[in-house]
Amino acid sequence: MACQHYYELISQRLDGELTWEEEQELESHLADCPSCRALAEQLSGLHEDFSALEEIPAPEGFVQGVMDRIRMEETKKVIPLFRRPQFKAAAGLAACLVLCAGLYGVGQLNLPVQNGTVQSASAAMENQPEDTLPQYKASQAPADSDPEVEDVPEVSGYSFASGETAVGESAQAEQLTPRIYGSDAPSQVRSEGKNALTEENEPEGETQSTQPPNDALDSQTPQGDQQDALAGEGQDDPESTVGVTDAAIGEEGEARSFQNEQYLSVTYGATPQAPSAVILGSVQSLTDYLAAFPEDDLTAVAEGYGAAYFESGRLLAVLVETGSGSNSFTLAEDGLDAEQVVLEENRPQEGTCDMAAWLIVAEVGTEFSEGETLEVSVVTP
Amino acid sequence: MSDRDLVARARAGDQEAFARLVEENQNKVYSLALRLVGDREEAADLAQEAFLKAWQGLKSFQGDSSFATWIYRLTTNVCIDYLRRQKRRQGVESAISLDDEDSGWAEPADWDQDPQRKLEQSERGRALARAMEQLPDHQRRALVLRELSGLSYQEIAQAMSLDLGTVKSRIARARLALRKILLSDGNFSGAAPSNPTNEKKRR
Q1: Which of A27, A43, A216 faces B179 most closely, judged by CB atoms?
Q2: CATH topology for B1-92?
Q3: What ipTM was predicted for this assembly?
Q4: Within an 8 Å CB–CB cutoff, is residue A15 touching chain B?
Q5: What Å distances lie between residue A261 and A103, A175, A363, B191, CA to CA?
Q6: Which of A176, A213, B12, B37 has CA atoms 20 to 30 A from the CA of B90?
Q7: Has this prediction a pTM greater than 0.90?
Q8: Domain ranges (residues) in chain B
Q9: CA angle, A320 as apex, A232 and A271 as ends, to 5°?
Q10: A337 by DSSP, 3-state: which?
């Protein structure tokens, strides 16, 4: 019994973690106690054996897996570029210029075509057959921020005519409304981003076929998730977010009220489900929902809403990711209806480029039911 | 090519050179991760993450220590982060089950059966590796942080959110348990009982 006290000291001595007093105490005990002496020797041998501790071979393909991840990371540095506020702002600006040019063009339509206008068109455009010209210009316009007036007649035709424009045969063009014109530019840019992304990810695809074990590992990592989330987002972009957003505001559905919003920063990467909005109607579903954020302290939310609250109210939980930690989101006033929730994204002039994720929780009424999901739209005021 | 050269090349962006460093250190790093987290898949993932961090941090690696030491440290940190996350995820419930401090000391029996035969170093290393696998996770983890990662008791306490007393006793228990396992396997090589004075000088 008395000896047990010394086992710990014997162990501590091996690690050089004894005080001088403890050392003295142990020494004097060891002098009197052969069994503790024997133990001390055995443990010391054990301690020394650690230098010879056999290594466990890393799984096959380990090195390749590391190198794949390195390449993936290097790629990832490129992707967020398209999500950076500066980039989006530039794209938006380009779109505005085109829109202005278009409006200007409308004003000019009734005037005879000026010589200068036609001649300033680029040689490439002159060589285009008539019918493909508008489409070509539509995709070029945002990228060439050259504010020349050359596009005017075509652009205005493209954007303001409905149905029978030069590009009327494409389904996309039929959906276009004047409003969307401004948002077409970013989505153009985004699809370029998507292409870049697809290409860059090709090595990863190869890995999947040749190195299944590593890749399985990769996809479990937060990085893997982020990557997937990014890829997924890139692919969804053209038909979701921007294009749909603007048109939807205030048009369909009656605005529903919400209150006591809470804006919570959550760990980026734990949010492959973003953007999403779901109605929580019970303590259980709130708990389950918050469990997806083990990294974050969300106890204020968890404790704020008990069974009593859910008897007469629901919670709206919105999750969004942003390319910059300095961007913030606000639930747009009148931005909530039965189908969707609109967020305003505020971007400071100087943004950081770190990824961030936000969880927004707001109280809503019982006209929403548990588990309902809403479309999330993000607008930039 | 020496590690130093490889590091210099890798720092300049040479992925091939870095791949060599990974190859040379993979087993060491993977072993450490596996012994800390106790799950092969997680260990491989975390070990890869550590190398990824090394690649990203090469610029800040001064070369004061060897690459091996540095990557070992990175691995330890990556694993500690993982264990903390895991602990938080599992919540209070397992925080309790992680601590079995009241389960009492394993009585170090069989003094006299201590086998004298000295195994070759590699055999001892193998026996120890096998015995390690039989340790309860929390004991193995604490001991690995001490013996392999070289953390002080204070650092371990901080890393694992334990108090110092728990760290002391956990490491001691781990050693006693290892000893017991090795004894029962007939693999205990211990120090020869003939040089006790040597032991006393050890700090």
Answers
A1: A43
A2: Rna Polymerase Sigma Factor; Chain: A (1.10.1740)
A3: 0.79
A4: yes
A5: 39, 34, 7, 66
A6: A213
A7: no
A8: 1-92, 117-191
A9: 60
A10: coil
